[in-house]
Design a protein that fits this description.
The chain has a two-stranded antiparallel ribbon. By secondary structure, it is an all-alpha fold. Strand 1 and strand 2 form a beta hairpin. Helix 5 packs parallel to helix 15. About 75% of the residues lie in helices and about 0% in strands. The chain has one domain.
């Protein structure tokens, strides 16, 4: 009790001493401006939708309803582009780390790079949703509102610099994603998948919160930088520290879909609307992987400290086993799937394993190069996932997605350009040169080899070979099987979806031809 009283008194005293200084300045809001733009846009979308429904009930025509919905979509995309421009401008001047809101927000080159990927994924998701929701007669403002709120939460999540902000933002993000999963309320499968996701997500939040509590108990700090300092100085209680980090890894392992914390992922991917699945598969994973990377690098930020060395030595073999199990499980189970959506879900688990290999390498020597490889991997993965899930939604008809491999037979004869884009995306997924997916895996494997993690690389190569089967299985159906019936995608509602698919495929080819330019720029941004 005396220790608690002393702690509270010291905090109150510091607050009185800092009373003369402004609590919040314009610089604080400038640091989170991309997130604020997303929040403002989402709120505006929700308000416009409420007014639109009121007008519709008083006798306005469906054409006016559709026009206003198109305006809402345009405002959402405009807000996304504006946020991206702000982040790009800030990255050019981000040589020094910027702290905001009492050091609870940290904007640096790492978080800015991931923020760009989140904005890119959100932009393409909103663009593909314009066609998909119209085709499924589910065009309501709350979808776009939830996407914008989720994107804002993700940006704040990767910028968080204390345990409280981390937990609040991940829970806000999770609630938005739960609702997106069960967005199609008339779909029994969607409601069931959303409920399962909610229950398991809440379970993982308990692990995460308990782990953060133990970290605070071990160090007496909630600020991540202060926690790193306590670890490096050896002042942290080792038993509480290791227990807290272990529980934190479990909680974040649920969010990224690592084995054995993956059970929610296939059902949520299959149950959610296809455009929501694409959004979840890239932006949520990018944010969670980055936070896991930063969270674990706390143990190895300060070289030569006994506490940091002990934490790194303990968690490196554990994470290595986790990466191996995740790669093997995801790719082996994907072999047995007849649903394209479930195949992609288990494939996503396998890709989480590859990202975990990069995180393991980032905990050792040459950590910055490995961290850059992880962030580079997220970019082509975002493009690949968005393209393939947009294509699945594009091919849907009569309110149903085309989920089986046989549904894509003969696609090349009826949609040759679309089939070519799908081929590029699947080849990149499999890691075949000269696509960006090959270089993404190569950079992570090279960082792991440099760190002495040869077994991880061998497992990654083996599972990449296994993945060729289920990716090329779809290619065989597209190019080598005759069509059983005419593939009739809605010709009046495909412009935005086609633009997303074509742009992603072209970007994968360009990144595959000039990969070093992108990685070198990223390394320079991260300060090597």
């Amino acid at each position: 009790m005396n220790n608690l009283s002393t702690f509270l008194f010291s905090k109150l005293t510091l607050g009185q001493e800092a009373a003369a200084a402004p609590l919040v300045s314009w610089g604080d809001f400038q640091a989170i401006l991309p997130a604020l733009i997303f929040i403002a846009t989402g709120t505006l979308l929700l308000m416009l939708d409420c007014f639109n429904r009121g007008l519709s009930r008083t006798g306005e025509s469906k054409r006016e309803h559709s026009s206003l919905s198109a305006a809402i979509n345009f405002i959402g995309l405009l807000g996304t582009v504006a946020a991206g421009a702000v982040v790009c401008a800030s990255m050019e001047q981000s040589q020094a780390t910027v702290f905001a809101f009492g050091d609870s927000i940290r904007v640096d080159s790492y978080s800015s790079s991931v923020t760009l990927i989140i904005i890119l994924g959100t932009f393409f998701s909103l663009l593909s949703a314009m066609d998909y929701l119209r085709r499924f007669d589910a065009e309501h403002g709350e979808f776009h509102c939830l996407v914008h709120y989720a994107a804002a939460s993700m940006i704040l999540f990767v910028q968080s610099n204390n345990l409280i902000m981390l937990f609040l933002t991940v829970e806000t993000l999770s609630m938005a994603v739960y609702l997106l999963t069960s967005y199609l309320r008339d779909s029994r499968r969607g409601v069931e998948g959303g409920l399962k996701y909610f229950i398991l997500g809440s379970f993982s939040s308990g692990f995460l919160l308990f782990g953060f509590t133990l970290l605070f108990g071990a160090t007496g700090e909630i600020n991540l930088s202060a926690i790193a300092g306590s670890i490096s100085s050896g002042e942290a209680d080792q038993s509480l520290l290791l227990a807290g980090m272990a529980l934190g890894i479990i909680g974040l392992g649920f969010k990224v879909g690592a084995f054995p914390f993956h059970s929610w992922l296939p059902d949520a991917y299959e149950a959610a609307p296809t455009v929501a699945t694409g959004f979840m598969s890239v932006t949520v994973k990018s944010a969670a992987i980055f936070v896991l990377l930063r969270f674990l690098m706390l143990a190895s930020d300060q070289e030569g400290a006994a506490g940091a060395a002990t934490a790194a030595e303990i968690f490196t073999p554990v994470l290595s086993l986790l990466a191996i199990a995740t790669m093997l499980f995801g790719n082996l189970v994907a072999l047995m799937q007849d649903s394209v959506k479930r195949m992609l879900a288990y494939s996503a688990i396998g890709h989480t394993g590859y990202l975990l290999v990069g995180i393991v390498a980032a905990l050792g020597p040459g950590g910055k190069a490995a961290a850059a490889a992880v962030i580079f991997y997220l970019l082509p993965y975002t493009l690949m996932s968005l393209a393939v899930f947009t294509l699945l939604g594009y091919m849907g008809r009569d309110g149903q997605d085309r989920e089986n491999f046989g549904d894509y037979r003969g696609l090349s004869t009826q949609r040759p350009f679309l089939s070519l884009c799908l081929l590029i995306v699947l080849v990149s997924f499999a890691g075949i040169p000269p696509t960006a997916g090959f270089w993404a895996k190569l950079y992570i494997f090279r960082a792991a080899v440099d760190g002495g993690h040869t077994w991880l690389v061998l497992t990654g190569i083996l599972t990449s070979i296994i993945s060729l089967y289920f990716y090329l299985r779809l290619v065989v159906n597209v190019y080598m099987r005759p069509a059983e019936e005419e593939i009739d995608a809605d010709p009046d509602s495909n412009l935005a979806s086609g633009l997303v698919i074509a742009t992603a495929a072209l970007a994968l080819v360009i990144l595959g031809i000039f990969p070093d330019l992108n990685l070198e720029a990223l390394l320079d941004t991260l300060g090597r």
